[in-house]
Design brief:
Elements: E1 7-12, E2 18-24, H1 27-40, E3 44-49, E4 54-58, E5 63-65, E6 79-81
Antiparallel strand pairs: 1-2, 1-3, 3-4, 5-6
Length: 83
């Protein structure tokens, strides 16, 4: 677990309607789950960091992640991630 961080996974049904799907204990677990969801339920998904209150992954656009993950210090550098 990443310093007590929690992540919510939501599906965007429209610009104004998000459906909460589930929570995850760490970013990698949340990202893996979004990959699974995309394999059988295409759509737009977001991962929301409950600590920073920011979207850290949006499948509708490339991700630039600027947060440091305690278990992986090398992630503190800005890097692009895509699904």
């Amino acid at each position: 677990m990443e310093n007590g961080r929690r992540y919510d996974i939501v599906r965007a049904e429209s610009e104004k309607r998000l459906i909460w799907l589930e929570g995850a204990a760490d970013f990698e677990t949340a990202k893996s789950r979004v990959d699974q969801l995309l394999s059988f339920w295409p759509g737009k998904y977001q991962i929301f960091d409950l600590q920073t209150k920011q979207v850290v992954l949006d499948t509708a656009r490339p991700l630039i992640r600027k947060t440091q993950v305690a278990s992986a210090p090398e992630v503190s550098q800005v890097q692009e991630m895509s699904l």
